[in-house]
């Protein structure tokens, strides 16, 4: 059975999906953190406010701000099928439970979906604490996924998203809403498909970075173990760093050594990695071994938006094998009608303005022979 990241883990899985992949080590058990308990309590207040059952000052303030917002769906779970591009609302079955989802469905719960006073459909994410109001709703992978799931489940070409920070001290404060149009939704669908592929592939390898500090398997990840092995070889008091449970810690000095070493090495590794990125930017690619290089690579992605004209054209040109009801991609078109024929179809879609090319540059591995990123 596939083990897939839920919406709240997508920001990590986008950088590294190894923790969900078939060769990942077993996830260590963790006690619930205090801030997670605060988060659950604040979300419960927000749900009560949306249901007209506010009993605390914060929930009452929130309930007032929700007046006039219609078709509200608080704490609504969704499942998005990566293979068909369809999404559905799940019946609520306990807190953040997704037992009804199938193997190809990624899941997540929208804190609140509503229709605004000017008729826009909006997905809202609540963040407890002051940080929420500074986050960008457009780049937040959790919210991007939920926007896609809600839009696809309701047959929308466009949807708004916002983040509302909730604190008992300063109340509720929302970011300005951001809009995802039909192109953005196609881009998000492609991102989610990439994450699904990485989460289910035995080829996926760990990709370490700043995101590791939020990873559910950081103590047992092979990349972390490699880094710890190097640390253990450095001079100084020798305490084992590769421990996975409290019973393996010999005493206060050992625990203090681990905590100090973590802070020192994390900072040092972050700084060293940033310096290496600067060096690569100024001096060019570096050898990675076995004919592979690492350096700045230009990437591009073409997304196909199913405008009415594009849908009509594809339904006319492509055989029934190509499902264009909710989504399609370059590879789906090539698979349905053959690569050569698909080039003409794509040219025509470009003329219809249904293909958007996004370009960006990022560090990645590549082979010099074809200059293609791995
Ligand atoms: S610790 Fe880092 S490299 Fe290892 S699986 Fe987690 S995110 Fe990936």
Map the helices and strands.
Elements: H1 10-15, H2 34-50, H3 57-65, E1 70-81, E2 87-89, E3 105-115, E4 121-128, H4 141-154, E5 159-167, E6 171-174, E7 178-180, H5 182-200, H6 222-232, H7 252-283, E8 286-289, E9 292-304, H8 308-317, H9 330-337, H10 339-351, E10 355-367, E11 372-373
Helix pairs in contact: 2-3, 4-5, 9-10
Iron/sulfur cluster binds at residues 12, 16, 18-19, 206-208, 211-212, 215, 217-218, 221, 223-224.
Highest CATH level, the class of the largest domain: Alpha Beta
How large is the share of residues in beta strands?
15-25%
Shape: globular
Largest sheet: 7 strands, mixed
Mean pLDDT: 83
Under the CATH scheme, which architecture of the largest domain would be assigned? Alpha-Beta Complex
Q: Work out the helix count.
A: 10
Specify the structural class: alpha+beta
Low-confidence stretches: 370-374
Span between termini = 28 Å
Rg over CA atoms: 24 Å
**What is the element string, with H for helices and E for strands?**
HHHEEEEHEEEHHHEEHHHEE
Total domain modules: 3
| CATH level 3 topology of the largest domain | Lambda Exonuclease, Chain A
Strand segment tally: 11
Bound heterogens, unique? iron/sulfur cluster
């Amino acid at each position: 059975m596939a083990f897939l990241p839920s919406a709240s883990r997508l920001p990590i899985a986008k950088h590294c999906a190894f923790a969900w992949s078939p060769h990942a080590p077993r996830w260590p058990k963790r006690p619930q953190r205090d801030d997670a308990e605060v988060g659950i309590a604040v979300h419960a207040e927000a749900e009560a406010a949306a249901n007209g059952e506010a009993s605390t000052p914060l929930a009452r303030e929130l309930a007032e701000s929700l007046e006039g917002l219609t078709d509200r769906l608080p704490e609504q779970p969704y499942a998005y099928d990566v293979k068909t591009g369809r999404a559905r609302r799940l019946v609520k079955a306990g807190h953040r439970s997704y037992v009804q989802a199938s193997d190809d469905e990624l899941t997540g719960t929208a804190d609140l979906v509503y229709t605004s006073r000017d008729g826009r459909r909006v997905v809202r994410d609540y963040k407890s604490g002051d940080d929420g109001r500074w986050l960008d709703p457009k780049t937040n992978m959790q919210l991007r996924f939920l926007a896609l799931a809600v839009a696809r489940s309701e047959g929308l070409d466009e949807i708004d998203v916002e983040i509302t920070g909730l604190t008992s001290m300063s109340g509720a404060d929302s970011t300005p809403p951001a809009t995802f149009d039909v192109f953005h939704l196609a881009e998000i669908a492609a991102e989610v498909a990439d994450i699904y592929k990485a989460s289910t592939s035995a080829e996926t390898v760990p990709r370490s970075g700043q995101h590791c500090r939020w990873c559910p398997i950081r103590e047992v990840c092979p990349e972390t173990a490699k880094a710890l092995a190097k640390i253990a070889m450095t001079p100084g008091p020798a305490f084992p760093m590769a421990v996975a449970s409290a019973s393996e810690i010999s005493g206060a000095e050992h625990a203090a050594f681990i905590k100090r070493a973590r802070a020192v090495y994390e900072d040092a590794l972050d700084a060293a990695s940033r310096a290496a990125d600067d060096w690569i930017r100024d001096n060019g690619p570096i050898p990675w071994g076995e004919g592979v290089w690492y350096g700045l690579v230009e990437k591009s992605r073409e997304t196909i938006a199913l405008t009415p004209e594009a849908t009509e054209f594809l339904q006319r040109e492509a055989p029934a094998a190509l499902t264009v009801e909710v989504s399609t991609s370059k590879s789906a078109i090539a698979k349905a009608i053959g690569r050569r024929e698909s080039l003409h179809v794509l040219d025509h879609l470009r003329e219809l303005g249904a293909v958007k090319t996004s370009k960006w540059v990022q560090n990645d591995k590549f082979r010099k022979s074809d200059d293609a990123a791995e």
